[in-house]
Amino acid sequence: MSQAHPGLDELIATVALLRAPGGCPWDADQTHESLVQYLVEESWELIDAIEAGDRAEMIEELGDVLYQVLFHADIAAHTEGERFDIDDVARHMTAKMVSRHPHVFGDREAETADDVVAFWEDLKADEKPHRTSVLDGVPRGMPALALARKVLGKAEKAGVTAAVIADAPGPAPVAPATEDELGRLLFGLAASAREQGLDAERALRGAVRDFEAEVRRAEAAAAS
User: Fold this and answer.
1) Do 117 and 123 touch, CB atoms closer than 8 A?
2) 36 vs 67, 99, 119, CA distance in Å?
3) How large is the average pLDDT for residues 161-169?
4) Greatest distance between any 2 Cα atoms in the chain
5) Following DSSP, what letter does each residue of 135-197 receive, concatenated?
6) Rounded distance between C-alpha atoms, residue 36 and residue 85, angstroms
7) Is 124 helix (H, G, I), strand (E, B) or coil?
8) Given this model, what pLDDT does residue 175 score?
9) Which of 61, 147, 169, 181 lies in disulfide reach of 142, CB 3.0 to 4.6 Å?
């Protein structure tokens, strides 16, 4: 049964009013590109609120992220050549979620979360047949640590693993057993890099790029 969402409807109308003639000049001047920085900032602020466990902050920050979605949709609704609105976004997402959950909306069976993850990659491959590598679609703008984790996970699905600990040059690195130990180790590495004038973010991105090249070579070899 459908349920009314007057608060959401009011927010959608507020965005439209602010961007309409006679509304806010700043809002009217924004583009998809100019809003990227705010989407990134609001997403990180939401993460902070989630990690802090602050319900009031979560409500506010979720609202800020939602506002960005509505803002982009309103821009598109009034941009020649785009012409989609928030309903188009919602319908596309609904169709995507139905497709990704055949164990709920179809006849496929999945009893555990691991069962679902096991066939998601196949579903994604069916949706995006133009992708030729498990690395295709990985967002390049992710922070280096998040990017490394994402690439390692994708590579594992292609049967490629990184023997980082065993292959690292110099003294054997410490393998942290907990997230607290890992955090202190990473912080120490970042501090050491800073003292030596090295850019830890750029260095890790470089290592990720090298590993990506290794993954693509392995995929090419397997395909041939």
Assistant:
1) no
2) 13, 28, 32
3) 58
4) 66
5) TTT--TTS-HHHHHHHHHHHHHHTT----HHHH-SSSPPP--SSHHHHHHHHHHHHHHHHHTT
6) 18
7) helix
8) 79
9) 147
